[in-house]
Every structure is written in C-alpha cells, then in structure tokens.
Amino acid sequence: MYIISKHKDYYDGAVGMGIDKTIVYERKFEAMSTPTNILEKIKEDDGWGSSASFVSSNAYGTPEKNKYDTYLIVVGFCGKLYPAIKTLTMKKFKGDWEETKIVDIMYDHDEIKTFLDKHQTKGYFWDKKSKTDAQKFDEYVQRLNAIDVAAWHREVDSPIFVWGYPPVESVNSWEMKFGFETNKSYNFFVNPILKDYKFAKVFDPYTAFQEVQMYVSGVLGVNRDGTEFPATEKQKVKQHGMDKWTFRRPPSK
After folding, report:
1. Could you report the per-residue pLDDT of 127-157, keeping only the tens digit for each?
2. Is the pLDDT of residue 197 over 60?
3. How far is CA 104 from each of CA 108, 120, 141, rounded to the nearest angstrom?
4. Taking Cα atoms as reference points, which of 103, 133, 102 lies closest to residue 115?
5. 243 against 63, higher pLDDT
C-alpha cells in the first residue's frame, strides 16, 4: 500500500515489508462537525456522553488525591467501532491542582468499567437504582456493536475516523499541529493520526497496516454492486511509480 500523507503514523513503518503501489491511501486529515446521520446513531443518549464526549468528573465533591475528567472517544477503524475513554488527570500539589495534566486513553472494556466504577460520581439524585457509568458504558458498547459502519467509511472516503474531542490536553496545540482554527463544533476527524490516540493498544503496527490495506483495496475500492471504483488520475500516476518530474527535467540545485 502506498500512503500519501503529510503526517507520520505509528503503523507507517510496516511499509518496509514492501509497497504495493496498486493500492493507494491518501491520508488527508480533516476536522468537521459530526455528520447528522452519524451523530444520531453514535451519540450516547443517557446524558453522560450526549454532548459528544464528557462522561464524568470527580472535580467536585470526591476527596481524592487526583482529579479526573473522563471523556468518550470512538475510533472507526476498518469497519468496526472501538469505544475508548480518555482521562485527564490533575495531581494535587501543595493543596492546589497542578497545571500539568496527564492524558491517557483506555480501550480495554474491563479496564474502562473498573475505572468508571472506582471514580463514580454520586450526585444529589443518586440512589441504588441509578445506573452506574460502567453500566451505561456496557449498554453503549452493545449498541455500537450493532451498527454497520461501512456506509460511514464510504461517506467520508476513509478507513479511519474518530468521534469525540481531540486526544490531547490542549485543543490549541492539536489545532496548531494540523492547521485548523478553533471550533468547538469540530468533534469528528477523518484520517486522524492514530498514534495520538494510542491505538497501538488495539493493533500492533504490522496488523494495523494490513487492516488498512485490506480495507482500502476491498471495501473502499468496491461499489455496493461489487464493481470496482475507477481510480483517480493521481492514483493512477502513483500506481505506476511516476511523479510530477517523470516527463520533466527537475530544477537544478
């Protein structure tokens, strides 16, 4: 698979195993508001994730050493949705909160449930009959598993997308990295860098590369009726190992 991208990702090194130039993946990053048809199915309807990501926080009332803010992220990768929990941890320092936050992303289902149970915030209206955040997460995962996301991949023309806030502490630093302006409605990212999302916890580099290659050449390269999508002129050029200087003299240094 030949990857066209301005940014490197953790699985790019697998290209060293050999490049099949008949398969081209143009990994162009794009940030946008979540398409309505996708938002209707992917959002969490029980309150803790309906605003696109906030799950829970022990910022108020829970007397712990650390303060946790917890957010929901969903990675769409090659035909399957991978829900994750992003945590922002602030350590106490001399009776106050440090400015530095520690960012982590969890994908393991049991690990997430254990974390949510441990840091469950019990508000004024809490009672034993209330669903815990871990129970809500369980139900949410079951609903995600029932969604056929192939149409979403075709809609955005990419094997990879992410729903939820950026995976870093500072949204501004992430915006500077990819060059888009501040916009709080941006919560859907096409062709993101999976290294930022610590996705190696789910797939090692070689397996991730193979999955993307198969999805690009298979699902994204074939119409619903089974016929192949015609390659673009840019893809045809890359497939034949040519570039813009193939029939021209490159400038002298």
Report:
1. 566 777 788 888 889 989 999 999 999 999 9
2. yes
3. 12, 18, 20
4. 133
5. 243
Q: Which two tokens stand for residue 193?
A: 């860098």
Per residue in 166-191, pLDDT tens? Answer: 765 555 555 555 555 545 567 899 99
Q: Which two tokens stand for residue 84?
A: 């994750």
How many residues comprise the chain? 253
**Where do the structural domains in the chain lie, given as residue ranges?**
30-204
CA dist 184 and 186 (Å) reads 5
Which amino acid, one-letter code, is at 100?
A: T
DSSP result, the chain: -EEE-SS--TTGGGGGG---TTSEEE---EEEPPPHHHHHHHS-TTSSSTTSSEEEE-SSS---SEEEEEEEEEEEETTEEEEEEEEEEEEEETTEEEEEEEEEEE--HHHHHHHHHHT----TT--TTSPPHHHHHHHHHHHHHT---HHHHHHHT-SEEEESS-SSS-HHHHHHHHT----TT--EEES--GGGGTGGGTS-HHHHHHHHHHHHHTTTTB-TTSPBPPPPHHHHHHHTT--TTTTSPPPP-
Q: Is 0.90 topped by the overall pTM?
A: no
Of residues 95 and 28, more confidently modeled: 28
Q: How far apart are CA 162 and CA 139, in angstroms?
A: 20
